[in-house]
Write a structure and sequence with these properties.
The structure holds 2 protein chains of 2 kinds. By secondary structure, chain A is mainly β. The model of chain A has no long low-confidence stretch (mean pLDDT 93). Classes of the chains: A mainly beta, B mainly beta. The interface between A and B is medium-sized, with 23 and 28 residues.
Chain lengths: 114, 116
């Protein structure tokens, strides 16, 4: 069984500040891990994914995440927040097998103030 | 990159009617497609997994007779909400997976269903 816990349903930062969105996973098999962003009434856009290669994964829009097996974590970071980063962020886990479904966390709403 | 097209983006229907939502993979063959449901301010919940040419596998608690899934070709899966009720109002999102490799699932832009 797999699950994802996103700590903090809402995170607020100032423009230019560090963004840190937390994700812990539980998986009985080696996982793939993903971060997606969703804007209102839209689908999901993949930010980055961990697929057992490098533990530090760089994604789009300046985001990155580090897979830490010892902590079962996959936190998302960005050094400097931009107003356009305000959105809903989902962490997801799947088995390391092509064509398996993603299991999503409950999401974190990121607000960015000027 | 791979694109998944979902249609319609919005639909309003009357209670008791049926609504069909289409999910197409535009530039790859999707042997497996997934249907998710998202209530306002909540996460995506997996409803069912459909494999081309076979019956869909539904998650626990999802009524298979109410949410009919057809995956007749490698590029098209449809979700039909039968006898819709206001509680079925939600955001439905499909995703498609290539047959091989570690490619991530590709998501459609979702369908906002409102049942009046």
């Amino acid at each position: 069984a797999q699950s994802v816990t996103q700590l903090g349903s809402h995170v607020s930062v100032s423009e230019g500040a560090l963004v840190l969105l937390r994700c812990n996973y539980s998986s009985s098999v080696p996982p793939y891990l993903f971060w997606y962003v969703q804007y209102p009434n839209q689908g999901l856009q993949l930010l980055l994914k961990y697929t057992s290669a490098a533990t530090l994964v760089k994604g789009i829009n300046g985001f990155e995440a580090e897979f830490k097996k010892s902590e079962t974590s996959f936190h998302l970071t960005k050094p400097s927040a931009h107003m356009s980063d305000a959105a809903e962020y989902f962490c997801a886990v799947s088995a390391q097998r092509p064509g398996t479904a993603l299991i999503f966390g409950k999401g974190t709403t990121l607000s960015v103030s000027s | 990159g791979a694109v998944v097209s979902q249609h319609p983006s919005r639909v309003i229907c009357k209670s008791g009617t049926s609504v069909k939502i289409e999910c197409r993979s535009l530039d790859f063959q999707a042997t497996t497609m997934f249907w998710y449901r998202q209530f306002p301010k909540q996460s995506l919940m997996l409803m069912a997994t459909s494999n081309e040419g076979s019956k869909a596998t539904y998650e626990q608690g999802v009524e298979k007779d109410k949410f009919l899934i057809n995956h007749a070709s490698l590029t098209l899966s449809t979700l039909t909400v039968t006898s819709a009720h206001p509680e079925d109002s939600s955001f439905y999102i499909c995703s498609a997976s290539r047959a091989t490799g570690d490619s991530p699932l590709h998501f459609g832009n979702g369908t906002r269903l409102t049942v009046t």
